[in-house]
Amino acid sequence: MWGLAIKRALMAIPTLFVIVTLAFFMMRFAPGGPFDLEANLSPIARQNLEARFGLDRPLLVQYLNYVGGLLAGDFGPSYVRPGISVSEYLATGLPVSLQLGLIAILLGLLIGIPCGAYAALNQNSISDYLIMGFAMTGVAIPKFVVAPLLALAFGIYLDLLPVGGWNNGAWPNKVLPIVSLALPFIAYVARLTRASMIEVLRLDFVRTARAKGLPTRIILFRHCLKPTLIPVISYLGPGTASVITGSIVVEQIFAIPGMGSYFVEGALNRDYTLVLGAIIVYATLLILMNALVDIAYAFLDPRIKI
Question: What is the pTM of this model?
Fold first, then answer.
């Protein structure tokens, strides 16, 4: 298992290098620049700003300087807000986004897996139809629709929860964003768990266990759970990507100062270093999650180690 972890860590280095390279040149080739929104900016002032940040140098030189800074742990300054470095943005926004994303993923697993298992054990019953109906609804409705509806229902009409703001991480401010991110994740996990468990329950070793008179609880937790979770673990990689991309929208809707808000702000202002810093963080999280998925495979199915 340690060998697999080291191998995935080594594979992550060239992957990150490719992502940084593509993102750097795509940002530079996109229309507009970081100083286009400055009102009444004279050509001389623009030249001075570009010289200050090294944007007057050849593109290849800019790229090499940026990569050199990354290797030293420097994400560079913000072009739009020169007094703030990208590292400061990451230090303030990343913990916020991690809280929302990790809790949403945890809720998805804690609620989705039992619901899917219950639906599989009661296949074609009313409870099965209700759970799968909820799952289909969660899959079909996108986050940018779910979030405003939750804010309208629980924030405006019922006046139970705040509809925006972070308030230093107070729990009432976290509930609606987390639920908005978790609902589609719960739906996907429930559907995958149900389909996988139905297949596992029909396997020969489960029939043998039932023939021996083992209780359903023992069969479920000792024999069925691990093979059932393999498709769910497979979904954690793209599921994490879905939560991350969804957090960009959800953080904007609920005015939360996380990585998603900073990414949108940097993209609108053509703040190259801020966008690149957010991309690097997101890419690192996805690569880490995919590596953890591979390690979890080896734990759930020993044959995968071979």
Answer: 0.81
At which of 29, 46, 71 does a domain end? 71
Measure the CA–CA gap between 156 and 145, rounded to whole angstroms. Answer: 16
49 with 100, same domain: the answer is no
pLDDT digits (tens, 9 = 90+) for 153-191: 898 888 888 888 888 888 888 999 999 999 888 999 999
What six digits make up the tokens of 148?
Answer: 């405003």
The SS3 of residue 277 is helix
Regarding whether 119 and 37 lie in a shared domain, the answer is: no
Half-sphere exposure of 148 (CA within 13 A, CB side): 7
Query: To which residue do tokens 């006046």 refer?
Result: 159
Domains contained in the chain, number: 2
Residue 245's closest CA among 280, 282, 212?
A: 282
**61 Cβ neighbours under 8 A, 6+ residues apart:** 54
The CA-CA-CA angle for residues 153, 157, 160, to 5°, reads 80
Q: Which of residues 42, 71, 100 is at a domain's end?
A: 71
38 plus 156 within the same structural domain? no
Give the pair of three-digit tokens for residue 298: 């080896």
Say if residues 147 and 253 touch (Cβ distance below 8 Å): yes
| Enclosing domain of residue 52 | 2-71
Token readout for 163 is 């509809």
